[in-house]
Amino acid sequence: MQPMSNKTQYFTDSVIRRMTRIAIASNAINLAQGFPDFDPPKALLDRLAEVSYAGPHQYPITMGAPNFRRALAGKCKRFMGRDIDPENEIVVTIGSTEAMVDSIFALTNPGDKVVLFSPYFENYHAQVLFADCEPIYVPLVPPQFHFDPNVLEDAFRQHPKAIIICNPSNPSGKVFTEEELKLIAQLCVKYDVYAIMDEVYEHIVYAPHKHLYMCNMPGMWERTISCSSLSKTYSITGWRIGYAIAPKPIMDKIKQYHDFNTVGAPSPLMEAAVVGLEMPDSYYEEFSAHYAHMKQLFTDGLRNIGIPFTDPQGTYFVLADIGPYLKKGQTDVEFCEEMARKVGVAAVPGTSFFMEDVRNIVRLHFAKKDETLNEALDRLSHIREKMG
């Protein structure tokens, strides 16, 4: 037999998705994989019911349904403050995941270097390796997850092709400040580096923090790809509708990869999702208040239990310190598997996200109904006795 690809030797399957399977098998509350247990907005569900009969049901235009792209451009005008050309500067993808992959392949050649902040979403590491590129890691230092500008510039001095930034950041919950984004922008311009932004949590930000778009930083529109999706904003993670926004010269390359990679996003789901893109401002105000409530409920519960954690500025994740509960020699993966079975709560081991040797951190998420979070907190209150 011919040897198979050796690219996967540097990582395992997704530990996040693996923990979902363990949660199901253990009948544990899944605070590992980040999806809500409450319904999408009723307007989307009503429109989906109509579309299920009326269609469309056939292949879409590869770059995405025209009415969806126009609605998306309108939403971007509202929140990004920029006029986006729906014909030449948008492509609709299978989730933000595909948007990120298409962007990396469109910008890089084998052997190129790509800067990643650590901790990072596990997909980025794999995506960079799939493209035969070399990751350069820059640590974000807890609890505020600041970075050292000198360390970052040292990474840029290695002549990377791109930097990948999740803002707001999964798993740390960091929201990059205007000062930080401007500093990164200056380095991108100085060293001629592209910025690939993952902004799927753009509407999940907690006061006084504010999400700012990298493409609006000085000199950055020409070198920024803004990737996002509808998954988090409208609680439709299973619809897998994402998108990339970039200036036409970059977008032309992204579209080529998208065309041969997935052909197009689902026609009926794009049609139904237009309703979401046209939601009034009141929807986003209520959405933000809902997430602020869930965050308050969950973090107050962790404090009462005595589990140390980092307070997120955005997203719906917390990084919790499970050091006091680890057995000698136990890995964080083993701990999470045991916690799912014995405590009934599933988490993600921190080694999935850090390039540093971090073994006492797990990621938990709180995009759940109150009753789900209260039950999870009740189970976690017995963690010491059940994991002893």
From TrEMBL:
Enumerate the spans annotated as Aminotransferase class I/classII large domain. 27-380
Q: Which InterPro entries match?
A: Aminotransferase_I/II_large (IPR004839), Kynurenine-oxoglutarate_AT (IPR051326), NHTrfase_class1_PyrdxlP-BS (IPR004838), PyrdxlP-dep_Trfase (IPR015424), PyrdxlP-dep_Trfase_major (IPR015421), PyrdxlP-dep_Trfase_small (IPR015422)
Q: What is its EC number?
A: 2.6.1.-
Q: Which residues form a coiled coil?
A: none
What UniProt keywords are attached to this protein's entry?
Aminotransferase, Pyridoxal phosphate, Transferase
Q: What molecular function terms (GO) are annotated for this protein? A: kynurenine-oxoglutarate transaminase activity; pyridoxal phosphate binding
Fetch the PROSITE patterns from UniProt.
Answer: AA_TRANSFER_CLASS_1
Cofactor(s) listed in the protein's UniProt record: pyridoxal 5'-phosphate
* Pfam families noted in UniProt: Aminotran_1_2 (PF00155)
Question: Is Nucleus one of the keywords UniProt gives this record?
Answer: no
Which Gene Ontology cellular component annotation is one that this UniProt entry carries? cytoplasm
Protein family according to the UniProt entry: Belongs to the class-I pyridoxal-phosphate-dependent aminotransferase family.
| Protein name (database record) | Aminotransferase
The species this protein belongs to is Pseudoflavonifractor capillosus ATCC 29799
